[in-house]
Amino acid sequence: MQVLNAAVRAWLLRDPPLGVLFNPNSTDVELDEALELKITAVIRWLEEHANDLGPNSEDSISTTLTGKLSIDGIIDVTRETNNRGHVDITIKLVQSPRKRLGEAKIYDGYAYHEKGLQQLVERYSTGRERSGYMFCYVKAPDIKGKMEKLQADCDACKPFRQNTASVKHKEKWAFETRHAHASGEDLRVIHFGINLHVPTGRAARGKDSGE
Question: What are phi and psi of 116, to 5 degrees?
């Protein structure tokens, strides 16, 4: 039986569901459920720090997401790792060969979102991954309306062999699509909306006033 280091033990005490990520015998469904709990916690952190992150570039925000999502000894998250191309975000379990891939885009309408989805589904994914992730950084107001429009556009266009109607994810401003991968497997893609909108002048007032 493997001895857990102090950092891993601390994480498991703090977040017991993360134990699934450390277990090499967990199912892919269990893995995704635990991983997405961690992802949604990181999304909330990003949103809470929108004043600082809002002005940043797509790459800079993704680097911050990567750092917050990594857990020493449990999850190794990297940027621009080669997987049939340089993937925006690669999430790998330390205790098993399983991994998940993610593409990130600053929201700029469906056509731009579709480019990232194409890379994820048709270029980077091998078919071994049950799930992949689209991280949509929304700097404009009305993230609810924008993510609902992206979902409706996906259902209308059925991009990259989307083979079922999309469904709402349990996380707010997120939805799931399924795609027939060239391997013969289905690829589940979760599209996460991340609210980085800051009203004009708010960031400056916060720094000046200590808010």
Answer: -65, -40
Band (116; pLDDT cuts 50, 70, 90): very high
Distance CA 192, CA 96 (A): 25
Q: Give the burial class of 5: count Cβ atoms within 10 A of its Cβ; 0-12 exposed, 13-18 middle, 19 or more buried.
A: exposed
Residue type, 35: L
Of the candidates 91, 85, 92, the one whose C-alpha atom is nearest the C-alpha of residue 192 is 91
Written as one letter, the residue type at 31 is: L
With 70 as the cut, is the pLDDT of residue 210 above it? no
pLDDT in tens, 157-199: 999 999 999 999 999 999 999 999 999 999 999 999 999 999 8
Residue 3 DSSP symbol: P
Name the residue type at position 80.
Answer: E
